[in-house]
Amino acid sequence: MTLQAQQTVTAGTGDHWLAVRPRLILASAFMLFLELALIRWTGSNIVHLSYFTNFVLLGSFLGIGLGFLRVGRSKRQPYYSPVVLFGLVIVVLTFPVTVDRDTEGVLYWTSLATTGPPAWLILPVIFCAAALVLMGPAELVGRCFPELPRLEAYRYDLIGSLTGIAAFTALSFLSAPPIFWGLIAAVAYALLLVPRPLVTYLGFVVVPSLAVVGLLLAETLTAGALWSPYYKVTFRQFEQLGVPVTDIAVNGIPHQQAVPAAARLEWERQYGLPYERVTSPPKDVLIVGAGSGTDVAIALSKGAGHVDAVEIDPKLRELGGSTHPDHPYDDPRVTTHVTDGRAFLERTSRRYDLILFALPDSLTLVSGASSLRLESYLFTEEAMRAARAHLKPGGAFSMYNYYRETWLVDRLASTVQSAFGHKPCVDVVSTAGQQAVITAGFTPEAQRCAAPWAGATAGTPPPALDDRPFLYLKDGDIPPIYLITLGLILAVSLLAVRVVAGPYRRMRPYADLFLLGVAFMLLETKSVTGFALLFGTTWVVNAIVFAGVLVAVLAAVEVTRRFRTPPLPVMYAVLLGGLALAWLVPNAWLLSLPLPLRAVAAVTVAFLPIFAANVVFAKRFAETADATTSFGANLLGAMVGGCLEYLALVIGYQGLLIVAAVLYLGALALLPRRPALV
Length: 678
Description:
The protein is of the alpha/beta class. The protein has 3 domains: 1-227, Growth Hormone, Chain: A (Up-down Bundle); 259-362 and 381-446, Rossmann fold; 478-678, Growth Hormone, Chain: A (Up-down Bundle). 56% of the residues lie in helices and 11% in strands. It has helices at residues 3-13, 20-45, 55-70, 80-94, 119-144, 150-173, 178-192, 198-220, 261-267, 273-277, 294-301, 314-323, 341-347, 381-389, 406-420, 480-501, 511-535, 539-562, 568-584, 587-592, 595-622, 627-644, 648-669; strands spanning 98-99, 114-115, 225-227, 232-240, 243-250, 253-258, 284-288, 306-310, 334-337, 352-358, 391-402, 425-430, 435-441. The chain has a 7-stranded mixed sheet, sandwiched between helices. Helix 7 packs antiparallel against helix 8, helix 17 (511-535) crosses helix 22 (627-644) and helix 19 (568-584) runs antiparallel to helix 23 (648-669). The longest helix has 28 residues, at 595-622. It holds the Pfam family Spermine_synth. This is Spermidine synthase.
């Protein structure tokens, strides 16, 4: 950093009432907390974000990178951040995008009926606002970096990030509503932004922060709103034909109903078909997607002696227990498991007469889903094989839903056929929404079909696999809507970097750090999705994995600070070896291991390349001439890596390791050839 820039930074931060180290920890914790809160809150009110699950994350990475690049170019405090946050909250609450409640069945992008602004209008607003909001805390973090040695600053940044994750995880565990997120943001802004001049501080920090708290308090107090670790859950109770009904929606999407078993069986034939297709009444039943309790109540009414009810969302389970007219969860024959359905199948040793996937995926069924969603690993061929392995010899597996498309019914039926070794029973109850029931016995003799299934039609996609669990991706390419959106994101990002940071030549010496950021994002994505498969796609697993990644990064920084590490070319060789190990170890082998041994093996395979990658980064970052510009380049690379995540739609998650390896080789080729770096 030039002497002039160093003086500018010192003038902007030297008079802060907090010492640099606690200020850096607080700012880093706030930055990550605010990022997680924005992802969580905007997704609960804008249904379009169900189709672009890392959209706010990309905006956050852009903003964080820009915040670091802005350091040294302005002495002004980033008062714009709370003002933009207030504007974002106003827009989202005033113009939420929810699903039209009159639309039945599952949802596809091409036929989505919503209320609120269209995607092409609201999504750019959210992306740009997220970037501007996160740019403020990032600038506060970046202003601390020149006041400390490179790796010490990075160390405290990581400690703060871990603190932010811990805080958000604790609030998720407590099912805390958004008002608490707003209060934490208001306090953080008040502590981090210098209150001079006082009028500006009051007008640009205190007033908008308090307004955000007030708006989130009003939302929190909305009747019928619960906040689970996954969703904003709303419900309404009414009578239909004299029958009490509880209608449940999540993130503005109609999801489930709590209806008496007798009424549900009378109104919708599909709920009773699994019991008609088995050869004997099932005594031991597993229900995945138990939710409101209606499917549990039906199983009990059919004579089940024991029901294992699996539901991933604790609030949906709680709501089913308190509102269902039949009170099925109070029955001593029912055991509840709040966990991921695939994870339960991999862990339990129990066998069943009937395993039922009961509408476990009735949210946003997206043509070309951009990322893992809660139930994705339930519909792969490997998941169907796991279900078959837990059936008794005369048992059966069944699943039902509104599938909307004929090819989707055929794809699932052919997946079941591949896993069970014979054709299943396929009952299309309603052709309007492709309401269908797919049932397969442990053997062909364990099922009673009304008519033989004709088989999958020509052009039906092959079964989804654990490596590519994108059930709703019909063609093996990236849908145009994603390509267009990602192209626009990158174009906006290039323009924003030029406007905020000046000429691109500032970052040219750090091209290798940019590639390190791109590759690391792909490596992190592979790790998160891998752990989701091995241990369950729950919020707890995700929080532990993200925290684990940061701990691995912190460990790499500490090793680099305290010990003499091998030269960078050697560390690159270790990194590439770790990637090769991750490529060679199959998920099927890891899933076959006992849980404790699986955890040890998975951590070793996943975190060896992460650790090596961050030793490489730490050694390179320690010798950079400009801490904030080089760190900003790395963060912008992470944003590009978030865009490249979508390559998994074509090449699978395992293929991301190859892309990451190529990027790391590119970073090695761009490494400045200076003695200080080896």
